[in-house]
Design brief:
The structure holds three protein chains of three kinds. By secondary structure, chain A is α+β, with helices and mostly antiparallel strands. Chain A is built from nine helices and 20 strands. Chain A has helices spanning 42-50, 92-102, 107-120, 136-148, 166-183, 194-200, 218-223, 228-233, 294-301, and strands spanning 4-13, 16-26, 31-35, 57-62, 65-66, 77-80, 154-158, 186-191, 203-208, 211-216, 240-249, 252-257, 266-267, 280-285, 290-291, 306-318, 322-329, 332-339, 350-355, 360-363. Chain A has a six-stranded mixed sheet, sandwiched between helices. A five-stranded antiparallel sheet of chain A has the order 13-12-11-14-20. The longest helix of chain A is centred in the middle third of the chain and has 18 residues, at 166-183. In chain B, α3 (56-63) crosses α13 (249-284). Chain B is mainly α. By secondary structure, chain C is an all-alpha fold. Chain C is built from 14 helices and no strands. Chain C has helices at residues 2-6, 8-34, 51-58, 60-91, 98-106, 113-123, 130-136, 153-178, 182-190, 195-203, 208-223, 227-232, 244-254, 258-290. Chains B and C meet through α1, α4, α5, α6 and α7 of B and α2, α4, α5, α6 and α7 of C.
Chain lengths: 370, 285, 291
């Protein structure tokens, strides 16, 4: 269990900047998820924390101690790899205790730790088998065992579930969450899957192109995304973006979508927005925050902070437990998510209710939340 | 900074450097010796530098000492080797490509067995076929001629060329071929318009491999030819082996360098492909 | 016409296959048959039984050849693999001049055995080669006449052979090292293993297939050794560095004993097959399993 602080970390591969000034701080017992698309630098960041990659500038502090010049094995960390990276020529038992042997831990201690971990992860029967004889899920557990047995300050995970099939992935995700609850160890976890990130993390750092776009709790990232990138990355289907402008109509501040006429504005007084100089903004609302009936909206918003708009449904996708409808709103496309029992007629103009508490407004140029 | 990392780096370069010396020394010795006069050789030692760069030995090695002498010199045999190597490598490469293509993209019964037989054929010791081949060449009347050696090298090169192309084509997607078949293209059309354009890497590898094998051959050359029809390596060996009264080491070395130069140049220019050619058959099996 | 189109692939392969069957398997069959006859200068197709083999194994010269083959092969394999592994590990350490070094270590393979033999014959020359060099350095009593010493001439072939082929072994080991999953090495680093431990306890054990390939190739090269022996020692002095390949040729074309020569050729073939066939079988099994 330890704290982790990263100060102004920079890293270059040949001439390409891969990490452009990373700043992070997490507490003892936090579960930090590094989330982002391929190439954003999240794996590089993880490897740098581990000491498997060097950095060009900046500091990494584990428990307030600067570890920049320490080898991976000296940083008291454990690493679970995407491909599990089990030693093929050794059996499961040898794989798990290899690290302990390198540290010259006594034989009894090694046996004790091994027993405990084998019980916990239910891999006792597998101890004498070789990795090639194990299934994907079993290999995953052995990889975790190898990490757990070290009792490190920080656990590092590099997309450990990506190689598993969907069902197994959800099962293992739950196992990892349970582990975190039981051991309360500090964990840093890399993934590109936003559902995984949201369900596992206590803190999420969304990365893009070597920088952190937002470092916050899952709730805040979902409810109050800092940039359109974050808003778009998290949530499925992703947030609707309506381009338009903000105007002052006497005492009202109104959002007008691009092709809207003056009367077709949305009143955004309640949002307390500072109008940007260009006035061009992006109005963001998630599909699940659009309602078909006033009563639904009332129930959710608990007050009357909702707005009515007119739309034309154009496409519908049935996904089993829900349906996703594509609407035409004043020439722009927005998606809504509703229960599959709702009946919606295509091409018939209808009303939708927007939960104004869940609206995000972004500056059109900077893409940053206002 | 003399820490552990730098010390081990130093050790690394030391060992690597020692091995560079080990591998370079014979080449160095050959070059240096070939540029000395016999006096310099007698007085000096293996590694001593020539007093002046003297290409006399090279001239003698290439075109002899002039009329009246019965020494071997390389020029005619160099061209013999050329006459033998180029046709043999072209034919064996073309056939190997067609074979590899037919065996991998047109599944017919026995294709795998046929390939296995080719593969096994590349491992046989040639001693097991020397005698019958000698008789056959005699029977066909091409015993001591370039045609005979072209035949021999083509026949025994087929296994390798087929192996190379087969392994290469195995990893090319079958779907492209299927699409072409659906479009109505036939066997040769697919080969020439779809496969061949993407075969450049393996063609280069195969040609380099075959050239080296045939150019460097001695066994077939010495068994199936003699005298003026012999290929280069045989001539080189004859030159060096002459039990004449005086051994002209500088000429020997010059001759050796000249005999090795073509393959060496190819290796320096296309080394990567060369290595790929050698490892292609072996690491995959 | 349709028949032609349908069977075109087979027709294309047919000539090569026919050539293979005739010139490889057919010829081996002929050689095998002749080894069972009394043939001397010309083939005598009367079946004689295995007496040529008995003659063969009763000849001291053949025993010397086989013994030499054994000595040569063992040393050849051990040294080539040892050097190959060391060099490949060293080259795997992310060195800038890697390409240059690889070129130097591998160029001997581009040379013919005759060129190699000629060069080393000069270097190992008893009076003018290494011996003279060391003498001139001041060590007057240094002798290096292995080339002309009956018991030692075989070792000169080892020296030249290793020089020629060890670079190639390095190349295939390097390729093998490079194909190892990077993450396993990282895991070992996290576990605290030293570079030495990583190579010897984890990486090399993973390279069993490469070791197998290397050994097979080296054995194969060794059995075929003819060019190198001829160029370096011509089998001498006398017959002290004789090898089966040289023996066969001498018997066939020098002594007009083609029955005996055939027997020796078949012995060589049998030995190669005994190693290659199981190897190919296991390789193909692996390919099938991987599918």
């Amino acid at each position: 269990m330890a704290t982790l602080k990263i100060i102004n970390l920079e890293k270059k591969f040949n001439q390409t900047e891969v990490l452009k000034g990373i700043n992070l701080e997490i507490n003892d017992g936090d579960f930090l998820v590094l989330l982002g698309p391929s190439g954003c630098g999240k794996s590089t960041l993880l490897n740098t924390i581990a000491g498997l990659e060097s950095s060009n500038k900046g500091e990494i502090l584990i428990d307030s101690q600067n570890v920049n010049n320490l080898e991976p094995s000296e940083r008291d960390i454990a690493f679970v790899f995407q491909s599990y990276a089990l030693y093929p020529a050794m059996n499961v038992e040898e794989n798990i205790v290899f690290g302990l042997k390198q540290r010259k831990i006594s034989k009894e201690n090694i046996e004790q730790s091994l027993d405990k971990i084998a019980d916990l992860l239910k891999i006792k029967e597998l101890l004498k088998r070789k990795p090639a004889q194990l299934s994907g899920g079993q290999r995953q557990r052995v990889a975790m065992g190898r990490a757990l047995v070290r009792d490190p300050k920080i656990f590092l995970f590099d997309e450990p579930l990506s190689n598993l099939d969907a069902k197994l992935r959800i099962e293992m995700r739950r196992e990892i969450k349970k582990l975190h609850q039981n051991f309360k160890t500090t964990m840093v976890y890399v993934t590109h899957d936003q559902t995984e990130a949201m369900s596992l993390g206590t803190k999420i750092a969304i990365m893009n192109d070597g920088k952190i776009e937002q470092f916050d709790t899952p709730h805040n990232i979902y409810d109050k995304p800092n940039t359109t990138f974050v808003a778009d990355f998290v949530g499925s289907p992703s947030m609707n973006f309506i381009s338009g402008r903000i105007e002052k109509n006497d005492n009202d501040i109104v959002f007008l979508s691009n092709d809207a006429k003056k009367e077709e504005g949305i009143n955004i007084n309640n949002l307390n927005i500072k109008i940007p100089s260009s006035g061009q903004v992006i109005f963001g609302i998630r599909p699940e925050h659009l309602f078909l009936k006033k009563e639904h909206a009332l129930r959710v918003t608990k007050d009357t902070n909702f707005v009515e708009i007119e739309v034309k449904p154009e496409l519908y996708e049935y996904v089993g437990h829900e349906q996703i409808i594509t609407f035409n709103y004043l020439g722009q496309e927005i998606l809504g998510k509703f229960s599959s029992s709702a009946e919606i007629e295509i091409n018939k103009i209808m009303k939708l209710f927007i939960d104004m508490n869940s609206v995000s407004i972004f500056d059109s140029d900077t893409k940053i939340r206002i | 900074m003399l820490n552990k990392k730098n010390l081990s780096r130093l050790f690394l370069f030391l060992i690597l450097g020692l091995f560079v010396i080990y591998y370079i020394t014979p080449l160095y010795v050959m070059i240096v010796t070939s540029l000395k006069t016999m006096n310099e050789i007698r007085d000096g030692n293996l590694f001593s530098f020539p007093n002046a760069i003297n290409f006399e030995a090279w001239k003698i090695a290439w075109s002899g000492r002039g009329e009246g002498t019965s020494d071997t010199y390389l020029k005619p045999y160099f061209f013999n080797s050329l006459k033998i190597t180029i046709p043999a490598l072209l034919i064996s490469t073309l056939l190997g490509a067609l074979n590899g293509y037919a065996l991998t993209k047109w599944k017919f019964k026995g294709a795998n067995l046929i390939f296995l037989l080719f593969l096994f054929g590349t491992f046989i010791p040639y001693q097991a076929i020397l005698l019958p081949m000698a008789r056959t060449l005699g029977f066909l009347g091409i015993s001591n001629s370039p045609i005979g050696l072209i035949l021999v090298h083509t026949v025994y090169g087929l296994g390798f060329t087929t192996l190379f192309f087969r392994n290469y084509y195995v990893s090319i997607s079958d779907e492209i071929i299927k699409a072409a078949k659906v479009d109505g293209a036939g066997f040769f059309k697919i080969f020439f318009t779809i496969l061949l354009p993407v075969s450049l890497p393996i063609i280069v590898v195969t040609i380099i491999f075959q050239f080296t094998q045939i150019w460097n051959d001695f066994l077939f050359g010495v068994t199936f030819s003699f005298g003026e029809h012999a290929p280069l390596q045989v001539a080189l060996n004859n030159m060096v082996l002459t039990s004449a009264s005086v051994k002209y080491y500088n000429v020997d070395m010059a001759a050796a360098i000249m005999a090795g130069l073509p393959t060496l140049i190819i290796y320096i220019l296309a080394g990567n492909y060369f290595i790929k050619g050698l490892t292609a058959g072996s690491v995959k099996g | 016409m349709y028949w032609l189109k349908k069977n075109l692939p087979k027709i294309v392969v047919a000539p090569s296959f026919a050539v293979l069957l005739w010139f490889v398997y057919g010829f081996i069959g002929w050689t095998f048959y002749v080894s069972l006859t009394k043939s001397k200068l010309l083939p005598n197709y009367e079946f004689w039984g295995i007496d040529q083999y008995i003659r063969l194994w009763n000849m001291p010269r053949w025993h010397i050849a086989v013994e030499n083959l054994f000595i040569f092969t063992t040393l050849f394999i051990i040294l080539c693999i040892f050097i190959g592994v060391i060099l490949s590990i060293f080259l795997d350490q992310k060195i800038r001049s890697e390409g240059f070094l690889k070129t130097i270590y591998l160029y001997p393979m581009a040379l013919s055995f005759i060129v190699t033999g000629t060069a080393w014959k000069w270097i190992l020359n008893p009076t003018m080669g290494i011996e003279k060099f060391v003498n001139q350095l001041g060590f007057e009593s240094f002798q290096f006449d292995w080339l002309v010493t009956p018991g030692m001439s075989i070792y000169t072939i080892v020296i030249a052979g290793v020089w020629q082929s060890s670079g190639f072994i390095m190349a295939i080991f390097l390729a093998g090292l490079r194909s190892i999953d990077d993450e396993v090495v990282k895991a070992a680093k996290v576990d605290g293993a030293s570079t030495f431990s990583i190579y010897f306890k984890i990486v090399l054990p993973m390279m069993r297939p490469v070791f197998m390939s290397a050994i097979v190739i080296l054995v194969h090269l060794s059995i075929k050794s003819y060019d190198l022996v001829i160029a370096l020692t011509a089998g001498g002095p006398g017959i002290s560095s004789d090898m089966p390949a040289v023996f066969m040729t001498k018997m066939a074309f020098g002594r007009s004993e083609i029955g005996l020569a055939s027997a020796s050729a078949i012995m060589m073939f049998a030995t190669v097959s005994a190693i290659i066939v199981p190897y190919l079988y296991s390789e193909l099994r692996r390919e099938q399993d991987a599918k």
